[in-house]
Design brief:
The chain has 196 residues and is mostly beta strands. It is built from 1 helix and 14 strands, in the order ββββββαββββββββ.
Length: 196
């Protein structure tokens, strides 16, 4: 995807599941405008494996593409061939300041430094806190493997709507990987001591 200074969103490549947002599922070999976003003030775009998203200047999230695992946050498991606003965030008055997409999951950071996640949870993982070491000014919480999931929420089911990730600290950044997520907090923490 491409987001020039004009705020228009261009997309190209594989169109499976409607992840290009053009209303079709065929591939595009050159950049194509997503007309349904032209009247929005888009300030961020993100691309996952099967889905895509955009954030407006007013903090709204628009999602499209594959939805079979709930990764669009629309409350169902349907694909969206065109961008659709995540209404749950509007209904709960949550303005978003950053958006990240993984393979089949999505995370946002709200204007109040809270993290919300949705989508595939089946890679049985559990949250754990991992320190980067003394050279890092801020600690980060890595949502790692074993029991719960890459969403950081204590459930073994996929989440179809945004769900708050309970953390003790305010969050500055949330990033989705293929089957994991990383959250950078605003809390200064002491690095762990490693004893032989």
């Amino acid at each position: 995807m491409l987001l020039p200074d004009t705020g228009e969103v261009f997309t190209w490549g594989e169109g499976m599941w409607g992840k290009l947002g053009t209303g079709f599922d065929h591939n595009e070999h050159e950049p194509v405008l997503i007309p349904s976003l032209s009247d929005k003030e888009i300030v961020q775009v993100a691309a996952g494996y099967s889905h895509s998203g955009a954030r407006t200047a007013s903090g709204e999230i628009w999602m499209w593409g594959g939805g079979e695992l709930g990764q669009l946050g629309l409350g169902n498991r349907q694909n969206a061939m065109l961008p659709r606003r995540v209404e749950w965030l509007i209904e709960h008055e949550i303005r978003v300041r950053s958006l990240s997409l993984g393979c089949a999951h999505t995370m946002i950071v709200s204007e109040h430094d809270e993290v919300y996640a949705w989508g595939e949870q089946k890679v049985r993982q559990r949250p754990s806190v991992d320190m980067c070491g003394a050279s890092m000014p801020y600690a980060h919480a890595a949502l790692c493997a074993v029991q719960w999931g890459k969403l950081g929420v204590a459930t073994n089911t996929d989440l179809l709507i945004p769900t708050r990730v309970d953390l003790l600290y305010r969050v500055s950044v949330a990033c989705c990987g293929y089957a994991h997520s990383i959250i950078v907090t605003n809390a200064r923490m002491s690095p762990p001591s490693f004893e032989a």
